[in-house]
Amino acid sequence: MKDKVVYQLRDKAIWVVFVILFVAFTIANSTFITPNNLIMIARQVSMYGIASIGMTFVILLGGIDLATGSIITFINILCAYFMVNSGMNMFVAILLSLIVATLIGTINGFMVSSIGMPALIATFATQTIFKGFAYILCGGRPVNGFTTDFKVIGQGWVGPIPVPVIIMILCFIVGSFILNKTYFGRYFYAVGGNEEAAKLSGIRVGRVKYLVYSLSGLFAGLAGIVMLSRTNSGQPTAGDGYEFDVITCVVLGGVSVTGGFGKLSNVAAGVLIIGALTNGMVLMNVNSYIQMVVKGLVLAFAVGFDCLQKKRQTT
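and the corresponding structure tokens:
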């Protein structure tokens, strides 16, 4: 009974925090609640939201993916290079870019699963490699000159809703379907909860890791394309630091850093909290360095809370 109550509190607490934060910033600055600002927040968090789905899968497995920001950057530059420098059709360029992003994730899966490298080191290596490749590809300069059709992905609207927000919502629907309606999703929880038990039950853990890191690369690549369309410029620094914010969104959303526990619906709340927190601090003219401190404290609090919950369950 006690465990059930703890679970319910943990499950709903993130939304309570979101409402409190929303009310606090509204009181501090009435501009926060205006329709234009709320839409801007939704557009700003769309890239975090898309990338957080793949990161959720990885952390559910008990892993980590530090390459997310570099994949966003590299795909940002690669897709721009395909369209501008190679004159490639927009749809072909997007498809090839997403395939490359998935392959980068597969490389991470190979290093973690087949070689046995710690995920922290494997993805840090990939982060460094593809950040370097991005600079090599563009020579350290922005890539510009896209068609009007491509701009729709990041700047278009469907009625009152921005296209990036629609893409993010669709990605969350797909991610939730994978976790809740497929046997692969159940495998993610099983492997993250107890890898040895998963092996003994017949789950091919190596293949699951390959799949998870490949999906992480795919979603990060999609976030990079949406960002490219929104900014209308391929930037060699586009995804710098994104892995930190994405990990914060996922952990804040209640996904356990030790794996085996978490829901995508709560990750959505984590994404909204980070977006609201960032936007609210900007409206209140909070120094950018202080913003970094606040985000770091939020991550420390989220991880600390998770660790305390784990500790209580084992005592």
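(Above: one complete record from the training split.) The chain is about 80% helix and 0% strand.
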